[in-house]
């Protein structure tokens, strides 16, 4: 998906005669969907090929002797440093960055070159950008922080890497107060929501204006964590993560609210109560209590 989005962005900013070809197969080879010769020529084309092959010595030679520009951006908006990212070549990315490529190079179609790395399936690509000075709090052309770029691309490892390297875990997208990582993952992905809560995510966003008066004052993340239906029988680990999220919220002064109507409808549409008839029980506490009770019964015997 991340590759399709990147190619669509390129096609949108190119003229109709020079548009990058749309993906025609489901294969993993980017060369099947993007013709690098239509983006670069001369020393920059040779540099792109060397980087895609992970040939650090040739990358260095081309930059130093042939004066190939590692910061070149094609007329269609493809930064040269993105080519080895799309090819998944960590060594090639590092070689370009070692030889002057700017990890935060502004690119009209994407915002900054590092955006390609944030979408990449291999977190080592993003790590190379960060190790060479890439800014963790960058954003794409739509105003989405890199953390959200990675989240929307389904690259959770990249989300964690960015947060661990100092990205604002509560950064908002599009200037919308509730459009955060926790808002994104609180809709059922409680293993990730738990990690975010443990790393400083704020669940307290409150709706201040809404078409429906009853929603004013609601806290969507809190509602999701307490009431989003989870089929505990099928997803026990997810249900336990939800319970731990609830425990964290309760400890921070966010008690369970009334179940909102939209989540009640969601629960009903699934044909069950999602494995819970109310806020889930604290399984860890129950296990400790039952173990203690068992110990007492053994002592009495």
From TrEMBL:
Keyword Cell membrane set for record: no
Compositionally biased region (Basic and acidic residues): 281-301
Start and stop residues of the ANK repeats: 142-174
Keywords associated with the record: ANK repeat, Signal
Stretch forming the signal peptide: 1-19
Pfam family, one: Ank_2
The UniProt record lists the keyword Signal: yes
Region (Disordered) residue spans: 261-301
Name of the protein: Ankyrin repeat domain-containing protein
Organism: Luteimonas lutimaris
């Amino acid at each position: 998906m991340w590759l399709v989005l990147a190619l669509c962005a390129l096609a949108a900013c190119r003229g109709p005669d020079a548009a990058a070809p749309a993906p025609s197969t489901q294969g993993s080879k980017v060369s099947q969907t993007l013709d690098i010769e239509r983006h670069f020529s001369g020393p920059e084309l040779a540099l792109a090929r060397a980087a895609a092959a992970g040939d650090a010595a040739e990358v260095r030679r081309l930059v130093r002797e042939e004066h190939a520009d590692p910061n070149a951006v094609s007329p269609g908006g493809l930064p040269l440093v993105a080519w080895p990212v799309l090819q998944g070549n960590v060594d090639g990315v590092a070689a370009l960055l070692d030889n002057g490529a700017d990890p935060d190079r502004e690119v009209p179609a994407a915002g900054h070159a590092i955006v390609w790395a944030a979408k990449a399936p291999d977190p080592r690509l993003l790590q190379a950008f960060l190790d060479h000075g890439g800014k963790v709090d960058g954003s794409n052309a739509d105003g989405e922080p890199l953390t959200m770029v990675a989240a929307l691309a389904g690259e959770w490892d990249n989300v964690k890497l960015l947060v661990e390297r100092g990205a604002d875990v509560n950064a908002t997208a599009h200037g919308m107060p509730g459009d955060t990582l926790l808002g994104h993952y609180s809709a059922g992905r409680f293993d990730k929501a738990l990690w975010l809560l443990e790393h400083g995510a704020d669940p307290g966003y409150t709706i201040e204006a809404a078409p429906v008066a009853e929603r004013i004052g609601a806290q969507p993340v809190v509602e999701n964590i307490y009431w989003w239906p989870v089929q505990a029988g099928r997803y026990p680990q997810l249900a336990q993560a939800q319970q731990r999220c609830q425990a964290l919220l309760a400890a921070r002064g966010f008690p369970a609210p009334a179940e909102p109507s939209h989540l009640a409808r969601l629960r009903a549409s699934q044909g069950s109560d999602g494995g819970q008839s109310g806020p889930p029980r604290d399984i860890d506490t129950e296990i400790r209590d039952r173990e203690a009770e068992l110990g007492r019964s053994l002592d009495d015997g």
